[in-house]
Please model this.
Amino acid sequence: MKRATFRQLRAFDAIVRHGSFSRAAEEMHLTQPTLSMQVKKISNAVGLPLFEQIGKKIYLTDAGRVVHELCQDVFASVARFEMGVADLKGLKTGGLRLAAVTTAEFFLLRLLGPFCNRHPGVDVSLEILNRERMLERLRANADDIYVFGQPPLDFDIEAIRFLENPLVVIGPKGHRLAGARNVPLAQLLGEPLLMREHGSGTRTAIEQFFAETAARPKVKMELGSNEAIKQAIIGGLGVSILSRHTIEDTAGLVEIDVEGFPLVRHWYVVRPAGKKMSVVARAFCGYLAETCAAELSAWA
Ligand code: PGA
Model:
């Protein structure tokens, strides 16, 4: 194993996390043959296969499990080392790894701008993922801070609310209900509704609302992103319910005032319980506390 490189271990770990060579190759920005070669080198060094394939699924062998434990140890040590060095250097350098659910991109990037300008030496990475992949990263302790619309219940985490996330009814400019006040819910139910994909936090909140009100919307189409939904609304395919953040600065869309809306939700910063935060991560929380007037002092 002395010949194994850090990059090879990262490639191996990515395959384990994704359960897929193609998704791991995508994450690592490698071709699949290059990725397979990286893993083959570890496997040769160990002298045993690390994966076995049954049907389309890949499974870790016993040797693979041991190598994966080694990966976790190595990554944790390197992260501790980097954090220690960054702390010694203060905010002049260091990294901040953020991961956020898709809808958060509409405000998080704007929030990040002034923070990055204030600390030009800090290297910030932001992963924008659907909830399921966020959970994978949380499980793998891959990031410093996560932004969720609904903190996961079945993880040992700490979560603090920092911003409102109102879900509103959106239609095309000139829609017959635009401008009306407190439109009865029954009228919304008569409109073709565009919905986010399964696994979307926005969708879960909407489904919960309809379940609670025993209302049955006419779902016309399911689309995989906020942007696709916005374009479909502009194209006249229907109305939708999205976070108000998604329509700031978008021409061609209007908010429709429907009874029971907005659905009040919030954004949360999340970290694994007891995670030691770097100077940079703490500074970022301090910045969020100051910008969003959030109760984040304990993390800053
Ligand atoms: P989504 O999540 O972008 O997956 O819909 C947003 C949320 O949970 O509010």
Residues 101-103, 130-131, 149-150, 165, 196, 200-202, 265 surround 2-phosphoglycolic acid (CB under 6 Å). The first strand starts at residue 51 and ends at 54. The longest helix spans residues 62-89.
